[in-house]
């Protein structure tokens, strides 16, 4: 087992209606001037916007609306400007991963004189500056950003979608599954696949991690069984709650403790999103089974067989056979969530950008040095090609 | 799913040799005057004592040695006196659960004018006073105290062994599996059973907890498979590491998130320890299979069957049959760790104190109101009686 450190101070408030009695105190502990960040208006339709404004009555609230999916650096720049102009004390993010991700970088950018894209490209800069405390109300179960230090920000002008890390996790995260009951089937499926992908990225690791493996297997089973329930019964509070808590547990650092290799599928998907602005989770769902086929070999088949037996209840005694069945089961599960399983389904119709995306993914993700299995651009191109056909899957 | 809050700020430093470069800074961030608490001298034999003293050279170190298993209130009183007299800034606990448990209460008692037993009997008093920061170096995988707010303190004069909770978890916990390589087979078995019991106490809960159930199942499998390895190969770093991290994860609050009923086997065992001063984990190993038989009924058999299938890989399709096989498997596992499976094995030879212990357990543990299955004193007596025979087990 590898050495590691773990500390995560986020104060999780999980459950129904907790903001009513707790939101104001959670914010005012840091001050009275709030930058309230949200997305495209779904919180206005749901009534959450009004509730928040009522709870913050009398406080000095500045709004940044319209943060988009795959949040863009332009939103961060706008937030930086507001945070500085109004000298805010705390950021309140109400929304999904995009809103919270942008808010985290804004929280750093308040203390930065330059363009915040520099903070995205070089996270180390953020450790030398302060970061505003962040309180969030999560409305989409997917990214796990509600309990980690990461953000992913897109710069469409440069066709870049990059991860960046600040010094702090959110101070307080309100996780009310009821706020996700109206999430569309498309976003529910994409979010569930995103959670599952966070788990596979950490599970398929070269390090020996007996404790976190078992925890991950349990979280995978939770996502696999609850995503279809949430799709079939969107207002099932327990299924929504299971996905919400699983998303948080999947990426708060705990189950990656002691890991050693970098992630693979996420950096590859980030290229698809950066060039085609597709839904992140849907891209992951297309790529993941192809990646599994790509990296299944004699040295990895035992881990895939463990995945087969402990996650998918596959009984095959031969490791390779069990592994192949597990990859098929993964593909079947994605398909069952009623999202595309080939790139044409997200309107990527040709291979024109495969080479440039593959080269960028290998570079940004250090896939040729830090991947679970080291991948060259040609391997990534092969994954893209395989993602244009259902060949190899039943 | 129930509402809950979760926050745990403990800074975990897991792995080999981290204290060499990190212990001094971890302590001096809080000050220069240290109360160094340890147990019966095993850290002197192992060289850890000398290493710590070398790392703290030049600092103002006061020692409290001799904290005993099932730590006694007398040790806490001695620590309180030293902490006040020397106005220490921070407590350093080096040892197992007993040393850390006593240190946590000492950390509160420095700020209390009365007898610290009052703090044990009424934890609420501790929330109104300060608590010294605690840094610990764990040397036994068992209680999980290294990442939670709890302590269990014994008062033999009153035949009481009670849980108490302070406002804070340890500030920094160093978890080096190498520090557990010399733990005896007896303590290794007892510690592993303690971890397993923490998991069963939280798993068998009336609340619907889909996410934490899966995480617990993974942790259970880790303990079940690694305890025998650590017994057979005491110097197996990975097996020791798996038990160490599992002990921390089992009781840092995470996998109990959203739970609703109180614990049962722990309060019952605390009576055995309070009256007979037996090893806690061994008592749990004797009681747990009897408790499972006691609470298995039509309303609980589905949960026991899930336990059977996801933890013990039992294939029986009938829930009751699967449940019964899982209880037998639990008994077999305890027995395989080479510890007694009946009370006579810990020199409890008669039923003289069964009634008084049962009444106390029901009262202290609120077993008749808050148990997973509500238990009256007569039920607990029946468990004690069943613990004097192997009847019902193969």
TrEMBL record, chains A, B:
**GO MF entries:** alcohol dehydrogenase (NADP+) activity; butanol dehydrogenase (NAD+) activity; metal ion binding; methylglyoxal reductase (NADPH) (acetol producing) activity
Mind telling me which PROSITE patterns this protein's record contains?
Answer: ADH_IRON_2
Q: Which InterPro entries does the record match to this protein?
A: ADH_Fe/GldA (IPR001670), ADH_Fe_C (IPR056798), ADH_Fe_CS (IPR018211), BDH-like (IPR044731)
Gene3D superfamilies associated with the record: 3.40.50.1970, Dehydroquinate synthase-like - alpha domain
An example Gene Ontology CC term for this record: cytosol
Superkingdom field: Bacteria
Question: What region holds the Fe-containing alcohol dehydrogenase-like C-terminal domain?
Answer: 188-388
- Which keywords label this protein? Oxidoreductase
Q: Where is the Alcohol dehydrogenase iron-type/glycerol dehydrogenase GldA domain?
A: 10-177
Q: What is this protein called?
A: Iron-containing alcohol dehydrogenase
Its organism's taxonomic lineage begins at:
Bacteria, Bacillati, Bacillota, Bacilli, Lactobacillales
């Amino acid at each position: 087992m590898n050495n590691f450190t773990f500390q995560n101070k986020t104060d999780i408030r999980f459950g129904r209606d907790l903001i009513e009695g707790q939101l104001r105190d959670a914010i005012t502990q840091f001050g009275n001037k709030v930058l309230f960040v949200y997305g495209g208006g779904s919180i206005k339709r749901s009534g959450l916007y009004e509730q928040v404004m009522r709870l913050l009555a009398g406080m000095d609230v500045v709004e940044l609306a319209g943060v988009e999916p795959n949040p863009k650096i332009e939103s961060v720049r706008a937030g930086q400007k507001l945070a500085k102009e109004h000298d805010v004390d705390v950021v309140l993010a109400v929304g999904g991963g995009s809103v919270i991700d942008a808010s985290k970088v804004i929280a750093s950018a308040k203390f930065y004189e330059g363009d915040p894209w520099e903070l995205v490209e070089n996270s180390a800069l953020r450790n030398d500056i302060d970061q505003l405390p962040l309180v969030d109300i999560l409305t989409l179960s997917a990214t796990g950003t509600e309990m980690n230090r990461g953000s992913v920000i897109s710069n469409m002008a440069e066709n870049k979608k990059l991860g960046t890390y600040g010094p702090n996790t959110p101070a307080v995260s309100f996780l009310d599954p009821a706020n996700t009951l109206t999430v569309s089937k498309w976003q529910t499926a994409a979010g569930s696949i995103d959670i599952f992908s966070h788990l596979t990225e950490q599970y398929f690791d070269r390090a020996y991690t007996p404790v976190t493996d078992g925890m991950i297997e349990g979280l995978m089973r939770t996502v696999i069984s609850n995503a279809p329930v949430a799709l079939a019964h969107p207002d099932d509070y327990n299924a929504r709650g299971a996905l919400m808590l699983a998303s948080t547990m999947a990426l708060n650092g705990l189950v990656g403790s002691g890991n050693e290799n970098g992630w693979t599928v996420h950096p590859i998907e980030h290229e698809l999103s950066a060039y085609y602005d597709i839904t992140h989770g849907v891209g992951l769902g297309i790529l993941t089974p192809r990646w599994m086929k790509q990296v299944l070999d004699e040295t990895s088949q035992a881990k895939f067989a463990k995945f087969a037996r402990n996650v998918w209840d596959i009984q095959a005694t031969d490791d390779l056979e069990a592994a192949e069945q597990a990859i098929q089961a993964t593909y079947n599960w994605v398909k069952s969530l009623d999202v595309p399983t080939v790139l044409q389904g997200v309107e990527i119709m040709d291979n024109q950008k495969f080479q440039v995306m593959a080269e960028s993914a290998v570079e940004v993700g250090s896939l040729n040095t830090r991947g679970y299995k080291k991948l060259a651009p040609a391997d990534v191109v092969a994954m893209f090609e395989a993602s244009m056909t259902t060949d190899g899957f039943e």
